Amino acid sequence: RGEILDRLEDLAMDIKFLEQFRGSPKLKELCKHIRFQSFGARITIFEQEDEGDAFYVIYSGSINVYIRVVGEYTGQVYLKPIAELHEGDSFGELALIYGARRSATVVTSEPTDLIVLEKEVYDRVVKGFQTNQIDSIIAYFSSIPVFKNLTMPCMVSLATKAVLKKYSTNNVVIRQGEEANNFYFIRTGRFKVLRKVDFRRSSSHEHDTMEWLIGDPDRSDRAKGRVVTKLLEIDELGTGDFFAEASVLFRDSMHHSVIPSMPSEVFVLDKFDFKKVHPTLMEEFKGFSKPYPDDTQLRQSFIELERWESYKKNICDTVKQNSQISRASFSSHLRSPMFENTNMKDPFNFTDTPGVDHAIQAHFKQSLKKGSLSGGKHKRTASTTVKKKSKTRLPAH
């Protein structure tokens, strides 16, 4: 019996629902009580409004999920397909978690083998753990605008299909050029969005026009070695943000890479599972997808920023250089012979004034000595004041 349980535990790791119990004593307990049940094609497993008495995991095969709908014009009830589930998918938990009746009808679409967990075992082993987990996940997804209008059954379906994954710092989640099969929702942490962009490298001034620099490099540029690739950080994502949705929604390859800048946790939702949550959710999600600049726009922004940084550096270097020249020039000028035989001292601190015209400075001194400034009383007062200040500021020659 022990070998059988070990074998079941190994098989359980291939089942999405049971994978969450890896390393937990609950997994062995579940394996003791699960049973297998086989169904032929087009067999009803349970119907909408039935009492919930078991939880199911698809071991092989597939099933269709239907809800009862009243025709708008005929008034007749018919079954509307809302989802198709495959190997590894689980169903039937809603009725067990909330004690409600079955919310849909489930029918096999081909010969199918199911793992069945009876309500009594589910309640004892799984329910408490899963209920707390589901409530926490629902609270998270409810904070994301695209999911705010989903009904509770849809939110539960979303929560039970989301898989939590952990990523270490700089462990690439998805690379530029790959095609995404999953939606990623950040629970904790930070991620960098990086894009490799090819730039033309100018070899002559004739190619320095912005229009040429921001254009896509061609074969001629590559043949002449005029292409350089730069890795640009175009965005930073945090809790509540999502990524890879554009690749999934528009069936396109990734235009950027996503890398965690710190240990992070992400809810991963397979694109097929995402469709099962609600028939129109994929289409609605397109309106929430974040657009990023194309390569041309990124080149222009990068070049303009680079030129601005270069301009600022040149300005700072020029100001610093001029300031040093002005101070050195004035310092040597103070020691020139023209000031050796005068009793007048500088009325202002000229060293704080860059670019002083020394001829004006000398003329000002001479004017004071001759008494040519206006107002007799004022000129003596001014002269006396200057002398008093000069006695305290500079030593007499």
Could you characterize what this model shows?
Helices cover 41% and strands 23% of the residues. The protein is elongated, with a radius of gyration of 39 Å. The protein is of the alpha+beta class. Helix 1 packs across helix 3 (25-33) and helix 5 (119-142) packs across helix 6 (152-161). The N and C termini lie far apart (110 Å). The strands form 4 sheets. A 4-stranded antiparallel β-sheet has the order 1-8-3-6. The chain has helices at 2-12, 16-19, 25-33, 93-98, 119-142, 152-161, 210-213, 219-223, 245-249, 271-277, 281-285, 295-334, 358-370, 376-393, and strands spanning 35-39, 44-46, 54-60, 62-70, 77-86, 90-91, 105-108, 112-118, 163-167, 182-188, 191-200, 227-237, 242-243, 257-260, 264-270. Strand 4 and strand 5 (77-86) form a beta hairpin.
Question: Which key terms come to mind for this protein?
Answer:
alpha+beta, four-stranded antiparallel β-sheet, disordered C terminus
